[in-house]
Amino acid sequence: MTPISETEATSAAAQIQQLRKTLQSVLFGQETLIDLTLNGLLAGGHLLLEGLPGLGKTELVKGLSKAIQLQSRRIQFTPDLLPGDITGNPMLQETDRGRRFIFQQGPIFGNIVLADEINRASPKTQSALLEAMQERRVTVMGETHPLPRPFFVLATQNPIELEGTYPLPEAQLDRFLFKLDVQSNDAATLEKIVLNREIGVEPEVTPVIDAEGLNQLLDLVRRVFMPQPVASFIARLVHGTQPGQPFASGVKFGASPRAALALAAAAKARALMEGRLHAAYEDVRTIAGAVLRHRLLLDYGAKLEGISPDGVVARLLENIPAQDKPLPTSLAAAKI
Q1: H helical segments located in 81-138
Q2: What is the spatial distance between Cα 35 and Cα 17, in angstroms, rounded to a whole number?
Q3: What distance in Å separates the CA atoms of residue 201 and residue 205, rounded to the nearest whole number?
Q4: Residue 143 burial by CB count (10 A; 0-12/13-18/19+): exposed, middle or buried?
Q5: What are phi and psi of 328, to 5 degrees?
Q6: Which residues contact 41 (CB under 8 A, 6 or more apart)?
Q7: Rg of the chain's alpha carbons, rounded to an integer?
Q8: What's the whole-model pTM score?
Q9: What is the pLDDT of residues 211-259, one digit of tens each?
Q10: Distance from C-alpha of 86 to C-alpha of 273, rounded to nearest angstrom
Q11: Domains assigned to the chain
């Protein structure tokens, strides 16, 4: 694979910055959420957003689809939702060769799919979505239908309404690249919202790039160089989450190898966002919480003591050293 050039990295960073500014004009006071959302999408992953209703999760998806000129779909998950309601169903139709079953695409056939309140659907329906997320294709009656590219799922869940819900099992949570906590706005941001927004009126969004441009950015991310010391840091960080490791007290089940791959992809995406040619230690530190918090299962004692997955990740980052020597300042030196 051809390494990314400095010109390509600079141009990509400028596009991403413009995209960031556009989304900040749509969703006020959520700069960190916007940065991590762009980071996750550029890494080619799916995102799980957890937060109270009304904080702008849907507006973020709408604004993102308009800024990148992608087709967005929204699926409101309910207990009676069936797998076919998501993937699509074969329908009996008249054709030149008589009556035949023709596959009718479901709402999952979009570039950006908002899975609203995913934990309200039954495990069988959740599995249908998560299988499509993993395989990026749908198989119905033995016939395989590829999903469009790019394809991202942004799923939401409400942290306070747990009655009548089906929490996602850890094996399914592992399919999400990031889990992002959507925070409430402060008073200054609320004032800005009141002065600049009206109920029922969507903000105007200027397109920044198209689907082809996004696919090019995704290809550039894969060409960002991963230095061996950074890869070693990722490996030691993920290994450090396993039960029995010195700084994994309270962890019942640690992160899987998929978490290491997620950290690597997200670190490379963050490097491109800043116009750099290779990933760095700070990239890993910045996205470690979003990658690992939903992949760590704590034991009962840890929960009683008030230990959280974020606290475990912070402890790991504080105690696991990156490397004694700094990273090279140039890509050529990094490869030596």
Answers
A1: 83-87, 123-135
A2: 10
A3: 12
A4: exposed
A5: -60, 155
A6: 47, 64, 150, 152, 214
A7: 21
A8: 0.87
A9: 889 999 999 999 999 999 999 999 999 999 999 898 888 899 999 899 9
A10: 33
A11: 1-223 (3.40.50.300), 225-323 (1.10.8.80)
